[in-house]
Amino acid sequence: MRTEAARRRRESLIPYLFLAPWLIGVLAFSAVPIFTSLYLSFTNYNFIGTPDWIGLRNYITMFTDDPQYLQSLKVTLMYVFVAVPLELAFALGLALLLNRGIGGLGIYRSLYYIPSLIGGSVAIAILWRQVFGAEGIVNKTLGIFGIDMPSWIGTPSHAVWALILLKVWQFGSPMIIFLAGLKQIPNDFYEASSLDGAGRWKQFTHITVPMLTPIILFNAIMQMISAFQAFTPAYVISDGTGGPVNSTLFYTLYLYQNGFGNFQMGYASSMAWVLFIIIGIFTWLAFKSSNKWVHYDN
Amino acid sequence: MALAIRYKKLVLHALIIAGVVTMLYPVLWMLSTSLKPSDMMFTDYSLWPKKITFDHYINGWKGISRITFTTFYMNSLVLVFTAIIGNIVSCSLAAYAFGRLEFKGKKLMFSLMLITMMIPLHVLVIPQYIMFNKLDWMNTILPIVVPKFFATEGFFVFLTIQFIRSLPRELDQAATVDGCGPIRIYTKVILPLIVPAIVTTTIFTFIWTWNDFFSQLLYLTGQEKLTVTLALRMFLDAMGDSALGSLFAMSFLSIVPVFLMFLFFQRFIVEGIATSGIK
Fold first, then answer.
1. A32, A155, A237, B145 - which has most CB atoms within 10 Å?
2. Is the pTM of this model over 0.95?
3. B212 and B130: one domain?
4. Tell me, what's the pLDDT at A288?
5. A52 strand-pairing partners
6. Same domain, B39 and B135
7. B238 and B255 inside one domain
8. Do B150 and A130 touch (CB under 8 A)?
């Protein structure tokens, strides 16, 4: 009997054996860092000395005494709220077009996905510098129509648009999710509504869009979260400066400059927390608003 | 009528193909420019080079300050493969525990896993950087690969859990009747069956680690340690846009491995995105 009990006890530990790596990982690489980061955000810490507790000063400085910070926030918000809706519009449009049963879905889907596959890489950022450069193919094409443009990358009012277009260019991955969602809509719905005399447009607004709203919400949140954290393209296109004149100073780029360029690690930590909170608020708002426009069938 | 439908279809195909060409044009332009002789790069804008040369590839491969791209590719490959092994082992272990075993605190830990998936990297990266510096791991791949051996990429744990849950329970029950414990069930029953999930984990780890820039920029600083991604940036810094041909040649080459992964494993990638919503 005793050996039986001992065996049971031993077996009840086995699950933790499987979990051990994950548990250690959560502790060492998530739990400890997140609390350390919160602590550091209330300190002045330059990586060499010891952190100095300064209370809320980092947070106050950010919003009252750091125009560059406010600029980075502005650039990022504009990037997120212009690029993501445009990206989703293209994703949905193409998904609808591909879903019309015209054949070749597999190959078209793959081709449209290619930009998502490589869009975040340094190679594509390097390409983008040229594409939107003074003599780039975009300006050459516009030149054909008699439109004369300066280098997009070199002009403060235009540079961020090159980055926005780079994000929109990667609409393939939300498109695949939309396509999967479109397949889930039962055909009966369309057949029944056809019998009732509903036209194409009516079916689109009364069946397709409502049925897709949960996926629109999902895509919007996922793309928004990733857009807030975009780093590589801004870094490569501006040589790490966020220029010209801070016009591409993404939030994460400014955070990087502070934390790892100037080693203002306390300030960078508080920036990270504000970003976390901003993402949290927008995600919460999206969910909160969802009962007004997202259709859930029970 | 039939003719009208066929005509409509043709228009749709034309529209979709025009879209594809527009989207992929920049990449094709990069390829074509990298094959043109330097003096033709800015005079001949056509996609089809009138004269083809591989000089840019040969010159570009020579790299920066006598370190060639052979080193950079080796560095990238070592990094990527270590990351893949880490993710496969640790994520499948955790996923098996969550997907099949019963233990105290399971619900709580599962929510904890979902929460960690939502924490932005930037909140964690500064303390991690300080920690890795204390461990003397700077300028090694350890800060990038070691966390992967501890299932820090919740996406893959989640993906594998979903996959394990879809497997019939009768299989483990039969193995239990045959006297297998959880460990043997994991190695003999579950692992062989979750191969598709493992393939998905492999592909995405490959693509993400290959393309990753931020962590590599932070931790790999020595010239002989640079990965392909970092080498490209260094190349850009050193040459500016003056050596455009070589820059484009090496940039194009760097996306080829990702292309190849995609070409061979398309099905897994598309299904992976469609079912879990990952990038």
1. A237
2. no
3. yes
4. 92
5. A44
6. no
7. yes
8. no
- Best A50, A88, A122, A271 member to test B by mutation, with max B CBs in 10 Å, is A122
Q: What is the pLDDT of residue A76?
A: 98
Give the nearest chain B residue to A267 (CA atoms).
B126
pLDDT tens, B56-72? 999 999 988 889 999 99
Minimum-distance CB partner of B270 among A97, A176, A275:
A176
- The chain B residue lying nearest A34, using CA atoms, is B124
Cα of A26 to nearest chain B Cα, Å? 7
**Min Cα separation A64/chain B (Å):** 22
Judged by a CB distance cut-off of 8 A, whether residue B274 touches chain A is yes
From the list A11, A115, A117, which residue is nearest B23 (CB)? Answer: A115
Is residue B273 predicted with pLDDT exceeding 60?
yes
- Do residue B142 and residue B211 come from a single domain? yes
**Domain-by-domain residue ranges, chain A?**
2-40, 65-293
Mean pLDDT value across chain A: 92
Mind telling me how many Å the CA of A84 is from chain B's nearest CA? 14
Asked if A231's CB is within 8 angstroms of B214's CB, the reply is: yes
User: B168 and B109, same structural domain?
Assistant: yes
Instruction: Write the CATH number for B90.
Output: 1.10.3720.10
CB–CB contacts below 8 A, A to B: 242
Cβ atoms B96, B172 nearer than 8 A: no
**What average pLDDT does this structure show over A68-74?**
97
Q: B198 vs chain A: nearest CA distance in angstroms?
A: 17
CA B112-B278-B147 angle, to 5 degrees, is 50
What ipTM was assigned to the predicted interfaces of this complex? 0.91
- Residues A112, B19: C-beta atoms closer than 8 Å: yes
pLDDT band at B1 (very low <50, low <70, confident <90, very high): low
Q: What are the structure tokens assigned to A130, written together?
A: 């040229």
Q: Using CB atoms, which residue from B150, B186, B270 is nearest to A22?
A: B150
Last residue of a domain, one of B14, B31, B53: B53
Print the domain residue range for B48: 2-53
Phi, psi for residue B64 in degrees, rounded to 5 = -125, 140
> B165 CB near a chain A CB, below 8 Å?
no
Tens of pLDDT, residue by residue over A179-197, are 999 988 888 888 888 888 8
Is A272–B9 a contact, with Cβ atoms under 8 angstroms apart? no
Whether residues B71 and B126 fall in one domain: yes
Q: Are residues B136 and B206 in the same domain?
A: yes
> How many structural domains are present in chain B?
2
Residues B13 and B45 in one domain: yes
- Residue A120 burial (CB < 10 Å; 0-12/13-18/19+)? buried
A131-180 confidence digits (pLDDT tens):
999 888 899 889 999 998 899 999 999 999 999 999 999 999 999 999 99
CATH topology of domain A65-293: MetI-like fold (1.10.3720)
pLDDT of residue A128: 95
Q: Exposed, middle or buried by CB within 10 Å (0-12, 13-18, 19+), for B7?
A: exposed
Long-range contacts (CB closer than 8 Å, 24 or more residues apart) made by A79-85: A79/A160, A79/A163, A79/A164, A79/A167, A79/A227, A79/A230, A79/A250, A80/A224, A80/A227, A80/A228, A82/A164, A83/A163, A83/A164, A83/A167, A83/A168, A83/A227, A84/A167, A84/A220, A84/A223, A84/A224, A84/A227
Q: What is the pLDDT of residue A23?
A: 96
Question: Which residue in chain B has the smallest CA separation from A122?
Answer: B229
